[in-house]
Design brief:
The protein is mostly helical and 131 residues long. The protein has 4 helices and no strands. Helix 2 (53-64) packs across helix 3 (79-89). The two termini are 27 Å apart. The relative contact order is 0.21.
């Protein structure tokens, strides 16, 4: 699995808070902790946010025929806000996964993907080992 781009400041703050409480250097999902809701919930859009209709349209067109959209870019480019604006305007369910540098392993990555899909109403069966 390729390394992820540098994490956003908000995601780092979330992880830093988790480290302060647990002393852990690994993602919560990788050590069997409950899923952090902040990683599978689209952030609220402040009322002062500048609407980006062109970006909303591009994201909507991109998601119309593709079930997965991955957005990458440098720190501070506006990825999170563009997607949060789109998610707030979207009529259907949205599976949101926010990743940071500690989510590079499958044991950390996939539990968050499954949690986000389930939160969006997708039925994801349990692995055979858990049935």
């Amino acid at each position: 699995m390729a390394r992820l781009e540098a994490p956003a400041e908000v995601l780092m703050a979330t992880h830093a808070a988790k480290q302060a409480v647990t002393g852990s250097q690994r993602s919560a999902a990788s050590i069997g902790d409950p899923i952090l809701a902040s990683k599978v919930t689209a952030p609220d859009v402040p009322g002062w946010t500048l609407q980006r209709p062109r970006l909303n349209k591009l994201i909507t067109e991109g998601t119309r025929w593709r079930p997965l959209t991955v957005v990458t870019g440098p720190l501070g480019a506006g990825k999170t806000m563009a997607l949060a604006l789109w998610a707030a305007a979207e009529r259907g369910p949205v599976a949101w996964v926010a990743l940071d540098e500690y989510d590079n392993g499958a044991e950390a990555f996939w539990p968050y993907v499954v949690a986000a899909l389930r939160r969006a109403g997708v039925t994801v069966p349990l692995p055979r080992a858990h049935r």
